[in-house]
Design goal:
Shape: globular
Largest sheet: 6 strands, parallel
Number of helices: 11
Order of helices and strands: HEHEHEHEHHEHHEHHH
Helix content: 40-55%
Number of strands: 6
Strand content: 5-15%
Strand order of the largest sheet: 3-2-1-4-5-6
Structural class: alpha/beta
């Protein structure tokens, strides 16, 4: 490698560091998630204009291992949440879990994540969360076998609607990316679950067509229900 190449690499590294410091200071709060750790981390790594500060507020080793390289890990001692949040312009919960969703939607302050979520909303700090973990209709929760109870699906939906009324914005990667970066929202990215599963999901059935499968195949509940509905038409 010649001297010119080395100099260019040094310049590129300096530029990257400067751009990182100029990015919008954003607090990423980790909670324990069911899956999609690496898939979400890969997408976040491509976002520009953000300076990530990562808080692993609850046992979240898998989540931290996936995103630790994106920014600096920070710590909060639990005191003065309003003042502590002053350093951040926005907050993201990339792995919003059921416990934190239930806590915030019911106005409880039991965990660091739940407290910071609600204090950020009270301060008017833009607060975002991906809904893959907490939407029981999501593909991830179908694969995990958590979508079989209609009443529970409805309750999770109502809880997501409640935190939206409080000022939080939840949604998919592209929805949240558009909101946080101020860019147009385009087509939905496809997350490939890292959870081993032999199930055929609703999306697969819709993409390949009902005739490609039978009710004897290893279908998720929603996929089987969709096939039954189509067969009756």
């Amino acid at each position: 490698m010649d001297e010119q190449s080395l100099n260019q690499q040094a310049i590129d590294a300096i530029v990257e560091q400067v751009l990182a410091k100029m990015g919008k200071p954003t607090l990423m709060v980790l909670t324990t998630a069911n899956g999609y750790h690496q898939e979400i981390a890969n997408h976040l790594g491509a976002w520009t204009g953000i300076r990530w500060h990562i808080l692993a507020s609850q046992p979240s080793e898998g989540e931290l291992a996936a995103v630790h390289h994106l920014g600096n890990q920070v710590h909060w001692d639990g005191a003065n949440p309003s003042q502590w949040l002053n350093d951040y312009e926005q907050v993201l919960f990339p792995f919003l879990d059921f416990a934190t969703l239930g806590e915030v939607s019911n106005g409880l302050y039991l965990t660091p994540a739940g407290q910071l979520f609600q204090y950020a909303l009270m301060k008017g700090i833009p607060t975002y969360a991906f809904n893959y973990q907490c939407d029981l209709n999501s593909e991830l929760n179908q694969l995990l076998g958590l979508s079989g109870n209609v009443a529970m699906r409805e309750r999770a939906t109502l809880q997501l609607e409640q935190i939206a009324k409080l000022g939080a914005k939840t949604g998919s990667l592209l929805t949240i990316k558009a909101a946080m970066l101020g860019i147009p929202e385009h087509s939905e990215p496809v997350l490939v679950s890292s959870i081993p599963s032999g199930y055929i999901t609703l999306n697969e059935v819709k993409n390949k067509g009902v005739r490609a499968y039978t009710l004897q195949d290893n279908l998720t509940d929603l996929a089987a229900e969709y096939i039954k509905e189509q067969q009756l038409q």
